[in-house]
């Protein structure tokens, strides 16, 4: 008989929440994600560096855990929610909704997203979160008549939501959030319109 899953101790859950809050704040306020160190996060959270390394392994592990925790509401909406993100939504409505959700998430978490896209992998396109979005979009595009190469189209659409591009447009070009969303919507409609 399998052992019941152990719940984390209260102090471990409290430390995790404090670490995530500290990391959120540090990434939101930094000029560049590379500036944020494990020592900075530990100090801001009021925990020892050893606690961070035991819980997350390294900086990349912490960034992954924080990113996944922040992404969970969107992931739940995509996996089991109602339209326009949920699985019952027709592809022509769901693709733009998914891209809008990714864009808004990256606008709200751009330095964290940049940190994740820049973590020690040889390519940002080989990360678990990217592959998840790409696979979902590719599979939806395969259901669009005349979509052609759904694999490439999914990559091209996701390129418009890369954290470095979103940060550049929002911060350096000072493009307002709603304008960014409108531009992405128009771009997506153009791509989808050309496939039907």
Automatic annotation (TrEMBL):
Residues 37-56 bind DNA. The keyword Hydrolase does not apply. InterPro entries: Homeodomain-like_sf, HTH-type_TetR-like_transc_reg, HTH_TetR. Keywords: DNA-binding. Residues 13-74 form the HTH tetR-type domain. PANTHER family: HTH-TYPE TRANSCRIPTIONAL REGULATOR RUTR, POSSIBLE TRANSCRIPTIONAL REGULATORY PROTEIN (PROBABLY TETR-FAMILY). This is TetR/AcrR family transcriptional regulator.
